[in-house]
Design brief:
Elements (H helix, E strand, L loop, with lengths): L1 H12 L12 E5 L1 H17 L5 E5 L21 E7 L40 E7 L3 H4 L5 E2 L21 H20 L21 E2 L2
Parallel strand pairs: 1-2, 2-3, 3-4, 5-6
Helix pairs in contact: 1-2
């Protein structure tokens, strides 16, 4: 996190700014990198008084040795936070992986759940937008596919047995695109030009890949 902060702070301090205009700052990250992105934004805001326009977070998870309270006291100098993550409905969702972290080998916690990402007390400025969707962690960060951290049968198992509904690769691909397009639209709304995403389809494998983390 410190290295990312140093890079952004150096770029901020060294920018040409003859008109004295405030630059637009967007920091984005995925998975544990999303939480780190928020940590960098909070450090810029709290330590340097720098305004961060947007922190864009693809399914942030707490797997890093950083402040456990990160995200729970977002300062007003961060104007907007956009978070997309897996929906918390393990009894219905077939595409939600890592839903029962107590039984997995990872210390893995989705921070979109349980109001872990929220404004600091007295902060009426920051706009926090969250979207929970029935999608795997891989799908939300751009790599849909089955992995060994689901609680449901693998996609070629049609027995209907298991803790969750069967995994749906086509649905996972669709939600992967929607997650990315939502984040991109939020960034574009700030007047930032991004390379256009594919309008017809993303280059996902035709057949469901099985990832082995």
């Amino acid at each position: 996190m410190q290295a990312a902060y140093n890079n952004i702070k150096t770029a901020y301090d060294g920018r040409p700014n003859p008109n004295g205009l405030r630059p637009t700052i967007v920091i984005a990250g995925s998975s544990r990198g999303a939480l780190i992105a928020l940590g960098v934004a909070e450090k810029l805001a709290k330590d340097d008084g720098i305004t961060v326009d947007l922190v864009a977070m693809y399914d942030p998870v707490d797997m890093s040795e950083i402040d456990d309270k990160l995200g729970e006291n977002i300062p007003a100098k961060i104007l907007q936070v956009a978070v997309v993550g897996g929906v918390k409905q393990a009894d219905k969702s077939g595409n939600l992986d890592y839903w029962n972290t107590d039984s997995r080998r990872y210390d893995w916690e989705r921070t979109i759940w349980d109001n872990q990402i929220r404004r600091a007390s007295g902060n009426a400025v920051t706009d926090v937008n969250k979207w929970e969707m029935d999608a795997s962690h891989g799908a939300i960060v751009g790599l849909p596919g089955y992995n060994d951290n689901f609680g449901n049968p693998e996609p070629d198992d049609n027995s209907g047995e298991g803790e969750l509904a069967p995994y749906d690769y086509e649905k996972d691909k669709t939600n992967s695109k929607e997650a990315d397009r939502w984040i991109r639209a939020t960034i574009r709304a700030l007047g930032i030009n991004l390379r256009a995403e594919l309008t017809t389809d993303y280059p996902y494998p035709e057949n469901n890949p099985v990832w082995k983390p």
